[in-house]
Amino acid sequence: MGVAAGAVAVWASDRAHAAEVIFGAESSVEYDTNVFRTEDDVDDDGTFVFGPTFRLREDHKALTYDLRYHPTYDKYFTFDELDGFEQRLTAAAAYRLSPRTEITAGNNFYMLSSISRQAFVTELQTDPIVQDTRENILVDEYRFGAAHLFTSRLRGALDFNGYLYDPEDKDRASSLTNGVNLSTLYSLTRVDRLGGGVGFTNQDFDVESGADSTTRFYRTYATWSHDFDPTFSFTIQAGPTWVDSEQDDSSVSSTALVQSFPLQTSGAESFFTDIRTCPTLSDGTPYLSSDCAPLPGAIAPANLPLITGQGTVVPVVVEDSGNSSKLTYFGSLDIAKKWRDFTASAGYRRSNGTTSGTGSSTVNDTVSGSVSWRPDRLWTISLTARWDRQKSATKQLVFVQTLGAPAEPIVGVPVPNAAFSSGLTTVRIDDALNIKTTSVYLRVERRLTRRLATFARAVWTDQTSKRTTINTNSYDDVRVGIGFRYEFDPIEVPYL
Question: What domains appear along the chain, each with residue ranges and CATH number?
Fold first, then answer.
């Protein structure tokens, strides 16, 4: 009876503890040198971003959680059609069932925007129409796990994770990734820990205008962690990964509408494609690729749509389908060092990607490094550099636009060297996607009062995107901004 009363008393004391609610606001002004992330015809603009902040948190005995919500409205100075809302919701929680067992959970929900610029022509237009658009992208990332300390040296963990990517533009592929990981870690000595684990990830891509795909990653790995001293440590993890991918072509249409004459754009001018520079299939048929070059001096007339019509309906031929498998490796290397005022870290990571422009799985390689400096309790300065490479995980079934010559000569079209669309067919390509991104991020924050802080940030990004079947897309961009963040005093919310 006394034990039961004591348990009730402990429960009542926990329930009497109050959580904290913190309201606030954040606002910033940012200048972007390349709003549409284009290689040519670059436009800059400024943005005013503002919105409230909300935080609910508790850190008490067995239960800890922290929830943050930050909706914003983006107001562009020049391009009013890009104005819109964004939302960010993050949550993390941990509950200790016993001194040996802990459960953790987390979720990151984002409603973000993607800005693009597209140029197109219609049958009644002689000049291209430029359309600047803003579309919403829903991203939801979740994780759930349990860890148990079997002995003073042996720890085991079971983790589930997921990632949803759902763009508003249905011409872009949506993806759903779910994974599970089982791992152990053993403290061999005071400074060395050894372990390993197995993992499985399933990734589905839904492509509105192409072949859906499913990829499964089967992974096993070993882990070694070492502490050089209390302020300097590193962890290495590596192992083989079997990648099994399959694509479903059952929803592919038997015909497609394509541009009659695929053009090469350079600045404000468009050129016919030189069919002699394009690669060929095994039967010698040329196909459209990023390797194709413009036909020298063959500028496409502005009224080309009036000559060729809206486009050409071509047959779609599925020559190859089925599975594609590959053995690769996943792994990571992390190094961290702390000083009195500095912290520094560097690392390398190889893992499966979560999104891709081809509607198929990718493998990501990331090298990163960061330094943070706190000269006093008011200032925080951080610098982060990162390099990413995203490549196709296996040989992918992709559609290529086969080329030929028009059946009859067309006025204003240089034949026979100007490429003319003749059909769509499928081929398996080992390197269908290759994106390299380099970025540097600098942030300086100064706390003015206990609740008010101001910050400045600068981001430089350089990206080269190459896909085998379409033109490359490269850009560089610089964004700089300043802003402030204010939080009101916490409000205690006692349990009922």
Answer: 25-256+316-339+390-432+458-494 (2.40.170)
